[in-house]
Write a sequence for this structure.
């Protein structure tokens, strides 16, 4: 073979591989929504889908009102929640809990491809706890093969729009959780909860309620009523387990979220409204009292 023929062959092979890579990496995002979810159900699967992201595709900072789990098929990226950074690759899953400020982004060189499923309900909270998932531990390592199969089936179920979609989706989601729970606890379930762990779980539930309501006007009395506790008892329990009062926790939550939002192209008024302050001036005074500088000064420094 002549030298020019070899060069042509190598160039042609390179172009063919490049075309295959480009086709395989073509960005796509598809979501299937539950055709008839049950309102107020202890478990409700809302939607499921899959995506091949663009390089550096980013979501957030944002908050959701439901639970959302992504499982990575291939590629890499990162997830950030509660000022903690997690690098993720194929086989990993990240869990977004209601009310939690979060963001995530695909890498520039190997943007990830993943599937997701969204759901809500009291029963789902119990499943997350069994899998060892909470706001300070939102990452699942393992169980991806079964989870990805389940998410795919949930998506197919919703597309068929049959009247049994609710049951089928719930069954597939339970199968995914069984895989995640086994991966989290390979030697069997954790020891039964003690009174202390139950108190901690209830305090965490109150904390998540505050997280979900942080952008609106709330009161401790309303929180206690919705969670089924006397205000004084819940305040004492919260302080005992979390280390601060509910009011202090809510203020800290709002200020921490404000710092994140000030890094985004939002006005001070928009940031104030997003963290539950109707008056931008009062927000600025509260921010300065908390951090020692105004929101505008913080934005310049950052």
């Amino acid at each position: 073979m002549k030298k020019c023929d070899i060069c042509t062959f190598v160039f042609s092979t390179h172009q063919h591989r490049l075309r295959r890579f480009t086709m395989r990496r073509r960005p796509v995002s598809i979501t299937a929504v539950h055709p008839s979810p049950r309102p107020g159900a202890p478990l409700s699967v809302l939607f499921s889908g899959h995506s091949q992201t663009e390089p550096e595709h980013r979501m957030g900072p944002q908050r959701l009102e439901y639970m959302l789990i992504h499982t990575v098929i291939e590629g890499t990226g990162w997830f950030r929640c509660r000022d903690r950074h997690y690098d993720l690759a194929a086989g990993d899953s990240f869990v977004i809990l209601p009310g939690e400020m979060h963001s995530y982004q695909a890498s520039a060189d190997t943007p990830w491809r993943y599937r997701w499923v969204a759901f809500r309900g009291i029963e789902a909270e119990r499943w997350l706890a069994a899998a060892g998932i909470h706001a300070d531990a939102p990452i699942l390592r393992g169980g991806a093969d079964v989870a990805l199969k389940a998410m795919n089936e949930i998506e197919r179920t919703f597309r068929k729009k049959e009247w049994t979609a609710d049951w089928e989706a719930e069954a597939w989601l339970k199968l995914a959780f069984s895989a995640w729970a086994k991966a989290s606890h390979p030697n069997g379930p954790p020891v039964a909860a003690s009174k202390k762990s139950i108190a901690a779980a209830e305090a965490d539930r109150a904390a998540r309620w505050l997280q979900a309501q942080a952008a609106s006007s709330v009161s401790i009395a309303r929180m206690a009523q919705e969670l089924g506790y006397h205000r004084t008892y819940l305040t004492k329990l919260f302080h005992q387990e979390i280390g601060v009062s509910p009011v202090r926790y809510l203020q800290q939550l709002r200020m921490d979220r404000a710092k994140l939002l000030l890094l985004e192209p939002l006005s001070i008024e928009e940031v104030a409204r997003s963290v539950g302050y109707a008056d931008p001036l009062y927000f600025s005074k509260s921010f300065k009292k908390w951090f020692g500088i105004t929101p505008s000064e913080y934005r310049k420094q950052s």
User: Anything to note?
Assistant: Residues 194-301 form a domain with the Arc Repressor Mutant, subunit A fold (CATH 1.10.10.60).
